Amino acid sequence: MPRIVEKEVLAPGIKKFVVEHPLIARKRQPGQFVILRVHEKGERFPLTIADSDPERGTVTIVVQEVGRSTMELGLKEAGENILDFVGPLGKPTPIEKYGNVVCIGGGVGVAEILPVASALKQAGNHVVGIIGARTRELLIFEEEMRQACHELIVCTDDGTYGVHGFVTSPLKEMIERGDTIDHVFCIGPVLMMRAVAELTRGPAIPTSVSLNPIMVDGTGMCGACRVTVGGVTKFACVDGPDFDAHEVDFDLLIKRLQQYRDEEKISLELFKKKLGNMAVESSQAVAN
User: Fold this and answer.
1) Residue range 232-256, pLDDT digits in tens
2) Closest C-alpha to 43, from 260, 279, 276
């Protein structure tokens, strides 16, 4: 089983894991992802590969603890194993010399846009990065993005750091100034990606978004990750995860992401209760 060789807390509820997996490390390309399962009774869920080191045989993933499965992964420590770790999956992000590109990452999406920005810079593009988080303490990979971009703009929703506002604000200013933008790449919350798509639709700036819907097998067999793009049903795991932002039916995507919201909430509450009981038993054992 793949072994965790490093663990780092990047921000509250956001953790980085470096996992031993030589085959994935050698083959992965920017934009691809893995599907993992923490234990036998756990669900399968996708995480984009943030980095890899072929010489060490490791891949880096970043997880935000938003539900039971991500919290279970977050409890893992260096030296422990992950039951299933399958990849690289999905089509790589098309990397070519576009000219002037803007790479936008929001929240944990910063970790996912990082390898894309780095590859685009290496391909000879002028890369402007725009990254954002709700508040300064939730901002991740700022220095890594500075190295991957020629220019970097940092935003926080509450104004505690950088530009006060959403990542769409600097992009809107660039468009209104008439800056040359040959392509936009955007990864982050669905509402953010939809807002970016609406900004670039009018001036017809080619825009790519990376979609992360509900997935099960990652091979296109189960159909759980279907999305509507240009009026046609696509499977994010094999047809994506990158799609033309102007063709994505974001409203339908949001509805599908909320499909199991109640069940996810119940599962998370039960897990938190279990953790609470375990903490009580542990403290009692220490006292005795």
Assistant:
1) 999 988 999 999 999 999 999 988 8
2) 260
